[in-house]
Write a structure and sequence with these properties.
The chain has about 190 residues and is mainly β. About 5% of the residues lie in helices and about 30% in strands. It has a single domain, classed as Superoxide dismutase, copper/zinc binding domain (Immunoglobulin-like, Sandwich). Strand 2 and strand 3 form a beta hairpin. The structure holds copper (II) ion and zinc ion (ZN).
Length: about 190
């Protein structure tokens, strides 16, 4: 079902190779699998991340990702935050299993770049800057990212989205000094 859905809706004329069927004898894995540190190269046009709190926190929500002409459109609502800015990144490993989400590893950085602001020319592919929570602790997210994608080597599918306790200062190396990880969710292909 999923294979047909993916194969049947790839309108982008990008000249990439056609979908490759799984090798004989290998069980096709579900894209929602959580905890695989090195995701298969997976391509999609939409994805979702269900964000859950780390130990001792109550930050949660759902994020939607849509690959559009001008970038990766990220939308969603996150609640349970303290008011103000919170670092918002894609981390390397789609593994939120550790109580502090340390299992997600460092920032997703397939290009070997320094940490930076979301609009910087040189930044980690996972550097999405900050989200801003209002006085009720809710953050509304609606942004287009120019670097992260849902296919190819910059694909965040199977990576973790992390929300931090503090603000990303957009310059400290290697991760913006944003403090503890208060929530984590793996980017998964819908349906
Ligand atoms: Cu982070
Ligand atoms: Zn970074």
């Amino acid at each position: 079902m999923l294979v047909f859905a993916l194969a049947g809706c790839s309108p982008e004329p990008q000249g990439v190779q056609p979908p490759v069927p799984p090798p004989p004898g290998q069980i096709p894995t579900n894209n929602n699998t959580v905890g695989s540190g090195t995701p298969e190269q997976t391509s999609a046009t939409t994805a979702t991340a269900v964000i859950s709190p780390t130990k001792g926190n109550k930050v949660q929500g759902t994020l939607h990702f849509v690959q559009e002409e001008d970038g990766l459109h990220i939308t969603g609502e996150i609640t349970g935050l303290t008011p103000g800015k919170h670092g918002f990144h894609a981390h390397e490993k789609g593994d939120c299993s550790a109580p502090d989400a340390s299992s997600a590893g460092g920032h997703f950085n397939p290009e070997g770049m320094p940490h930076g602001a979301e609009d910087a020319a040189k930044r980690h592919a996972g550097d999405f800057g900050n989200i801003i929570a209002d006085q009720t602790g809710s953050a509304h997210i609606d942004k287009i990212d120019k670097i992260a994608k849902l296919s190819g080597k910059d694909s965040i599918i199977g990576r973790a989205i992390i929300i931090h306790k503090g603000a990303d200062d957009l310059k400290s190396q290697p991760s913006g000094d944003a403090g503890a990880r208060v929530a984590c969710g793996v980017v998964s292909v819908e349906k």
